[in-house]
Amino acid sequence: MKKDGHIHTPFCPHGTKDAFEEYIEKAIQLGFSEISFTEHAPLPEGFVDTTPNQDSSMKLEELDTYFEQINQLKLIYEDKIRINCGLEVDYIEGFEAQTKDFLNHYGSKLDDAVLSVHFLKHEDTYACLDYSPNVFEQMIEKYGSLENVYENYFRTLLKSIHADLGLFKPRRIGHMTLVKKFQKKFPMTHDFRSEILQILQAIKKGSLELDYNGAGISKPLCGETYPPKWVAIEASKLKIPLIYGSDAHQVKELKQGYTALIDSSYFQAD
């Protein structure tokens, strides 16, 4: 089956207002047989969005409408494509209990979900590491080095895998090398191989999946998939399922990076 497991929607405040139907019709045209709408879930109760426009996620009061619209579309398109109702849930260090409460309340409504790290904690402050090159540069200054930012990211990612988020914890880890989004402007010579292999072992032990995300191909300062090919190959050796995700925030981004992914050794390793 041809699946896109990571698609955003008109409910995304930092995306476009392209309609659900436009995403679905385009996905059918591209030959997908299954798609998952995984809009950014409301941030945990008590957490203040650090982005300038505070537009990282949908609002809690929008959730019921979001679910209703997707469930209606499931019925309309049931003979053409499988549609999953999902969310991309942020793991934010220090807000595990609130995230667990949210998932306990809404998790039964989900067919699919992604668990991602966008916000990093440093002392008592947080920052969104993929918001912009300027914010990322400020993080480097605050952390003392680029290497320290990477170390904190992979440490937080590992914590997300081990975190107790309850019965409805997402089973797929989102764009696990997102920290490399601006790597062409802030090049890192160390490949963090040992940290990444440790993360893959934790994913394997937890019987989790990996989001094989094509969005990085389209980012001018990244130019590679999340994760890159060598990580996908290591994941395949461990029999970790890699699920393609366009991470599309507008219709024209559907299938971004897909060719690079299907040409990788992962799909030939078995």
From TrEMBL:
<dbReference type="InterPro" id="IPR004013">
    <property type="entry name" value="PHP_dom"/>
</dbReference>
<dbReference type="InterPro" id="IPR016195">
    <property type="entry name" value="Pol/histidinol_Pase-like"/>
</dbReference>
<dbReference type="InterPro" id="IPR010140">
    <property type="entry name" value="Histidinol_P_phosphatase_HisJ"/>
</dbReference>
<keyword id="KW-0378">Hydrolase</keyword>
<comment type="pathway">
    <text>Amino-acid biosynthesis; L-histidine biosynthesis; L-histidine from 5-phospho-alpha-D-ribose 1-diphosphate: step 8/9.</text>
</comment>
<dbReference type="Pfam" id="PF02811">
    <property type="entry name" value="PHP"/>
</dbReference>
<dbReference type="GO" id="GO:0000105">
    <property type="term" value="P:L-histidine biosynthetic process"/>
</dbReference>
<comment type="similarity">
    <text>Belongs to the PHP hydrolase family. HisK subfamily.</text>
</comment>
<dbReference type="GO" id="GO:0005737">
    <property type="term" value="C:cytoplasm"/>
</dbReference>
<dbReference type="GO" id="GO:0004401">
    <property type="term" value="F:histidinol-phosphatase activity"/>
</dbReference>
<protein>
    <recommendedName>
        <fullName>Histidinol-phosphatase</fullName>
        <ecNumber>3.1.3.15</ecNumber>
    </recommendedName>
</protein>
<keyword id="KW-0368">Histidine biosynthesis</keyword>
<feature type="domain" description="PHP">
    <location>
        <begin position="4"/>
        <end position="212"/>
    </location>
</feature>
<keyword id="KW-0028">Amino-acid biosynthesis</keyword>
